[in-house]
Design a protein that fits this description.
378 residues, three-stranded antiparallel sheet, single chain, alpha/beta, 22% strand, 15 helices, binds flavin-adenine dinucleotide
Length: 378
């Protein structure tokens, strides 16, 4: 995996790819193909939220971790439980790169301090599956944390490769509105007032509170900050890759457990981004994920509160509607004769109908316009 000039992370073939490998890639790569196998469901399939065994709010019982993490540290608390209980040898996750605080890197966590350092959202490209072949061959059982697409890729690999079932104890995703490029990070830093990216000693996109601030600490001790609503809502979300705009799985439907922001809402149901003690949404999607969360609750690692799907719909208004946008946007892709990804058993038509003809048409035309402008630009 390499970073491109556009600031995204892409696979490069280092040698000719044998036909058999090429067929495997085509079957499991989430960019090309996202397909549920309904016989794998442990719970009824909700058209918008996917398979849900149980929905909860949750946060780490460790106040330091709760504060450091992205939302309530629910995700990290579950990882810590798995490590402390000896259920895994390590975690594959994503953190700031050791050689650059403004780049991401796959990181291996073996103790709670490692999990603490990797906590938080890094709104930039990541490739936590980049060495999965070696990991599956090496000794040790692990938990995997990734974007919904990473987890879908691993789940689809599990259908063809028995090593996944033997080595991967738990697949955990977070809800994802899309991956911004590193150009997004640069635009954010410039807007924050950072003139020299090479003088940044530490950088976080959020966390240290909920939602916390994008914060750059310079080697001369100066600090630059920007609130979450501005950083995500007006800068980073303008740098998403196109594939994320036609993503049918922003909510991690292939994971055992999914975490997300459990935003408080105003009377009209709009999420509020005032600073609060963090709360994660904790969704379990498989019996295995549910049993694990129950053990982490019993051990005191995570504190939970009840959550209904209606409440979650208010907390996550974008995720509640985005599946409905997929078919209209795919129609725009088809009209421009681009290659279409294959999506199956995701109830996209139900969601498109729920969204309505007007919004669907508007979304299709918007996508078509963007694609034609792109083509015009060569
Ligand atoms: C690109 C992106 C888009 C997101 N979109 C949404 C959204 O639409 N709605 C929503 O509610 N939440 C979204 N989140 C996730 C959210 O910010 C929180 O991570 C989530 O709420 C869980 O919080 P937590 O405190 O339980 O997690 P933490 O305990 O802080 O753990 C976060 C985990 O995410 C991993 N991680 C961080 N960045 C990346 C990355 N780029 N790639 C792979 N793994 C990573 C870390 O290694 C860590 O294991 C997004 C996160 C990212 C990175």
């Amino acid at each position: 995996m390499r970073d491109t000039a556009e600031g995204f992370r892409r696979p490069f073939a280092t040698c000719p790819v044998p036909a058999q490998q090429s067929r495997l890639i085509d079957a499991v790569c989430p960019g090309a193909n996202i397909r549920h196998a309904p016989e794998e469901f442990d719970a009824e399939y909700h058209p918008t939220w996917g398979p849900v065994v149980e929905a909860r709010l949750g946060w780490s019982s460790d106040a330091g971790l709760r504060r450091n993490a992205s939302s309530g540290g629910g995700l990290s608390a579950i990882l810590n439980f798995l490590i402390a209980n000896g259920e895994i040898d390590y975690v594959i996750q994503t953190a700031a790169a050791p050689d650059s605080p403004i780049r991401n890197a796959l990181t291996i966590s073996q103790v709670a301090d490692d999990v603490f350092r990797a906590a938080g959202s890094r709104y930039a490209p990541s490739s936590p599956l980049e060495d999965i072949g070696q990991r599956l061959d090496a000794p040790g059982r692990f938990a995997f944390v990734g974007k919904p697409c990473d987890v879908a890729g691993l789940r689809q690999l599990a259908r063809r490769d028995p090593r996944v079932g033997q080595k991967v104890v738990c697949m955990i995703a977070f809800m994802c509105a899309g991956v911004p490029s590193y150009r997004g990070t640069s635009a954010l830093l410039a807007e924050m007032g950072v003139e020299d990216e090479s003088a940044i000693a530490a950088f976080r996109y959020r966390g240290d509170g909920w939602p916390g601030f994008a914060t750059a600490e310079m080697s001369d001790g100066r600090r630059f900050r920007m609130d979450y609503d501005t950083s995500w809502g007006t800068i980073l979300n303008r740098h998403l890759q196109f594939r994320c705009k036609i993503c049918p799985d922003g909510t991690g439907e292939f994971a055992d457990i999914v975490c997300a922001d459990g935003w408080y809402c105003d009377d009209a149901g709009n999420p509020l981004f005032d600073e609060q003690d963090g709360r994660s949404i904790v969704l379990t999607r498989t019996g295995k994920g549910e049993a694990l969360v129950q053990r982490a609750i019993a051990a005191g690692d995570i504190i939970t509160a009840p959550l209904t799907l209606d409440e979650m719909t208010k907390m996550q208004p974008f995720q509640a509607k985005r599946k409905g946008l997929v078919l209209p946007r795919l129609a725009a892709v088809a009209v421009t004769f681009r290659r279409l990804p294959r999506f199956e058993n995701l109830e996209l038509a139900v969601n498109a109908r729920k969204l309505g003809i007007r919004q669907g048409l508007r979304s299709m035309l918007g996508t078509l316009r963007r694609l034609l402008i792109q083509r015009g630009a060569g």
